[in-house]
Amino acid sequence: MNVKFARLGAAGNEQPVVLVEDGNGAAKYFSLTGLTRDIDGGFLAADGIARARKALESGELPEISAEGLRIGSPIARPRSVVCIGLNYTAHAAESGATPPEVPVVFLKPSNTVAGPFDAAPIPPSSAKYDWEVELGVVIGKEASYLSSVEEAAGHIAGYVVANDLSERDYQLPGAAGQWTKGKSLPASSPLGPWFVPADQVDAGKLRLRTWVNGEIRQDSNTSDMIFDPATVVHHLSQYMVLEAGDVILTGTPEGVALSGRFPFLQPGDVVELEVEGLGRQRQEFYRAGTHNAGGSESLAAASAGDPAAVR
After folding, report:
1. Distance (Å, rounded) from C-alpha 183 to C-alpha 162?
2. Main-chain phi, psi angles of 149, to 5 degrees
3. Is 163 or 172 the better-scoring residue by pLDDT?
4. Average pLDDT over every residue of 156-181
5. Rounded alpha-carbon distances, angstroms, from residue 9 to 52, 192, 307
6. What is the pLDDT of residues 184-224, one digit of tens each?
7. Rounded Cα–Cα distance for residues 146 and 252 (Å)
8. What is residue 90's predicted lDDT score, i.e. its pLDDT?
């Protein structure tokens, strides 16, 4: 049974749900609160996806209305958000970098995770805030010193849409650069709207797109990845323990503002991101510290309808 997982409700008080489409393509939402407290590492490590499918098939889960509910990150705050840089050939070229021979790895604080429609703050002194659509990998069970790429594939629970928002002036100047500074800003890792199990996704050929104020910026495919998700998981497992519920952001394709072809984000801009089969995000940007969430109310209204309308 094909399913999608989501977390609905106010920030910090989301409820876990599973959604399925009926014969007409309309989504139905079922509460998981009788099965799990949240969609997190504990749920995934305890075979939660299979248990949710079984409970759906047996009619054990109560149907709920999603109307009026905020859509949060589909994965509760992970212990680690691990990122891969320069993982698309064309993006490496537009960044003026040679395609890496081994994955470029950095970390983002887990407190950067936000909902896919939450209003997005631009730092008070930022002049070069940038978007990055990415395929997010969710780890399903602990991975350490894995023996092969094939084994690593079995540790991937599923996938999400991610936006790796980046402040380039904080990230890049100087001989060594300061990637942590440029990648750690509040709400700079929107995830969702859904978590989709790995057995429903062909991660090697997914279209990724970004629009800014309705104009296309990124339009690529995961087939342009230098290191595919399973290779990334295998590589990371040689250097760190990946735990269930951890999220890996696998890099962004060409078309970011850093390329010099587009202006950086400004207050009032609207960014939409989509990964084929995984849904679509929308963020309206505001200047942090202005005491004005710059459209957060309109975003709440936009996501208060049927979340199934989010493609």
Report:
1. 13
2. -65, -35
3. 163
4. 90
5. 20, 14, 12
6. 999 999 999 999 999 999 999 999 999 999 999 999 999 99
7. 25
8. 79
* Separation of alpha carbons 184 and 244, rounded Å: 22
Alpha-carbon distance of 251 to 105, in angstroms, equals: 10
Distance CA 282, CA 284 (A): 7
Q: Which amino acid, one-letter code, is at 140?
A: G
DSSP annotation of 57: H
| Residues near 271 by beta carbon (within 8 Å), at least 6 away in sequence | 120, 131, 163, 210, 211, 212, 265, 281, 282, 283, 285
Give the helix, strand, coil percentages of the chain, each rounded to 5.
Answer: 20, 30, 50
DSSP code, position 267: T
State the chain's mean pLDDT as an integer.
91
What proportion of the chain, given as a percentage, has pLDDT over 90? Answer: 83
Give me Rg for the CA atoms of the chain.
18
Q: Quick one: pLDDT at residue 293?
A: 54
Q: How confident is the model at residue 129 (pLDDT cuts 50, 70, 90)?
A: very high
Residues 250 and 229: beta-carbon distance below 8 Å: yes
| Cα gap 9→159, rounded to integer Å | 21
Rounded to 5 degrees, what angle do the CA atoms 176, 172, 260 make? 145
Q: Are strands 279-287 and 120-122 parallel, antiparallel or unpaired?
A: parallel
Structure tokens at 70: 């905020």
pLDDT, average across residues 241-257: 97
Give SS3 for 236.
Answer: helix
Give the chain's end-to-end CA distance (angstroms, integer): 20
